[in-house]
Design goal:
Strand content: 5-15%
Shape: globular
CATH architecture of one domain: 3-Layer(aba) Sandwich
CATH topology of one domain: Rossmann fold
Helix content: 40-55%
Radius of gyration: 21 Å
Number of strands: 13
Structural class: alpha/beta
Strand order of the largest sheet: 3-2-1-4-5-6
Number of helices: 19
Length: about 475
């Protein structure tokens, strides 16, 4: 088996390689190809990976590990292609978030107008990779990490060029692990009745041994006042009767998020951009140091800072749980310390390549799973995964409020995809105007023009 990682200069790559190394025998892996257009950053991330291999006493891996800036070389003969690129780098996220914020509109990088800008930049690049895959690895599965994950997966589906595609996110699996920790049960014994779009989902029930744990979960949230990954008013959640994905904070508390970001003085993108500059400068200075722990400490200190500050400025809340007791707090902390995206991707690859079948929450075509959504609409729902097979599990009818929001967001996503493919300014403007966090033509025009100016050559030419 060969896995190719496109966008491998990203900061998650050492964690992905670490997880792959742990599972290499189960995967039957022969080769892992790391590819990125930024050769210097790829080499620095490669130095972290080499240090981790040395520190773990794995002087020699059981598979070939290569690094290249040549996409064709990386993709040649691949069985699985993982995409995790960001067109324009982290600097593009600063533009994505700052331009709308100047109008008092939340620019968030995936759910807000920032997701629109990233989608417009990313769809053409992803479709270019597909054309290369058709030459180099026509039978491969495309596993997309790159955000906005659902929109990009749908762009591939609607292009008609590739059927073996799936978008992944670790948010639903994080909720599942926390729910399992609540009853001190293995993760695979808990089933989430989950539905939505990427970064726009709800848990309708949490099933364990025939019982629904959701009322217990909501009662705990009300008692504690806060739980990790749930930055919502507990009374609102109790009335809603469902657990929203944490990204719904940006819809349910949009004005508060803008207020909090402005008060903090910096956007999330600006904070990460500064942290990334420090990270790569530190790696550059220390890459020749013989002690592998030096680079690893730099790297994991960076990840710790990034994790501790995740969504804190936007929500005004820390990641600490409220009044739940030390034992449960420890279980929650352990549950949230899993493999993240890497674990989701490798669970998927194991099942697709003939390992034990799994139930997973994935971004895949709806195919009738949720009435009211189109057959090709990519939704985030439970699915059965077996050898070379992904099939959606029927969700059934869902409440009007989530369905209405999903339909509106899906309309915006599809207009954005069409605008990116056709290079059409009018479609891009329409997409941004119908976005639930914009909903104003003049604001949409100012944001779109701001993106065109701010992104320069990284933004597609719109006519």
């Amino acid at each position: 088996m060969k896995i190719s990682l496109i966008g491998a200069a990203g900061v998650r790559t050492p964690l992905i390689v670490q997880s792959i190394a742990r599972r290499q025998q189960r995967l039957g892996l022969d080769e892992l190809a790391l590819m990125d257009i930024d050769g210097e950053h790829l080499d620095l991330i490669g130095a972290v990976i080499d240090s981790a291999i040395t520190a773990q006493g794995q002087g020699r891996l059981g598979f070939r590990l290569s690094r290249t800036t040549d996409a064709r070389q990386a993709l040649q003969g691949a069985d699985y292609v993982i995409t995790t690129f960001r067109v324009g780098g982290i600097e593009s996220r600063v533009v994505d978030e700052r331009v709308p914020l100047g109008l008092g509109i939340l620019g968030q990088e995936t759910t807000g107008p920032g997701g629109f800008a990233m989608g417009l930049r990313s769809v053409p690049v992803l479709l270019d990779y597909l054309r290369l895959m058709s030459e180099c690895c026509p039978g491969a599965w495309l596993v997309n990490f790159a955000n906005p994950a659902g929109m990009l997966a749908e762009a591939v589906i609607r292009s008609g060029e590739w059927e073996r595609v799936v978008g992944i996110c670790d948010s639903p699996s994080s909720i599942q692990r926390v729910a399992a920790a609540l009853v001190d049960a293995p993760e695979n014994e808990v089933y989430l009745d989950y539905f939505g779009l990427n970064h726009l989902g709800w848990v309708r029930s949490v099933l364990h041994r025939g019982a629904d744990l959701l009322p217990q979960f909501i009662a705990l949230l009300q008692q504690a006042g806060s739980l990790p990954g749930l930055p919502f008013d507990p009374q609102f959640i109790a009335r809603l009767g469902m657990i929203p994905n944490e990204y719904l904070f940006y819809y349910y508390h949009a004005a508060q998020a803008v207020k909090n970001i402005l008060a903090s003085g910096r956007t999330r993108g600006e904070r990460i951009a500064a942290a990334n500059l420090r990270l790569f400068a530190d790696l550059r200075r220390n890459r020749t140091v013989e002690n592998p722990q030096t680079l690893l400490k730099i790297y994991f200190d960076y990840l710790d800072e990034r994790g501790r500050t995740y969504m804190t400025a936007e929500t005004g809340a820390s990641h600490e749980a409220g009044n739940i007791g030390p034992e449960l707090a420890a279980r929650f902390a352990q549950a949230l310390g899993g493999e993240g995206y890497a674990g989701v991707a490798l669970d998927l690859i194991e099942a697709l390549s003939g390992g034990a079948p799994r139930l997973m929450i994935l971004n895949i075509p709806n195919r009738g799973a949720i009435p009211g959504m189109g057959a090709q609409d990519v939704v985030e729902i439970p699915a059965y995964v077996g050898r070379d097979l992904i099939r959606p599990i029927a969700v059934g009818s869902i409440p009007a409020h989530p369905l209405g929001l999903m339909q509106q967001v899906k309309a915006y996503e599809q207009l954005t995809i069409q605008a990116a493919v056709e290079g059409c300014y009018a479609l891009a403007l329409q997409a941004l105007t119908v976005h639930p966090l914009v909903r104003d033509l003049e604001s949409a025009r100012l944001i779109l023009d701001g993106y065109i100016q701010g992104h320069g050559a990284y933004f597609p030419a719109l006519h």
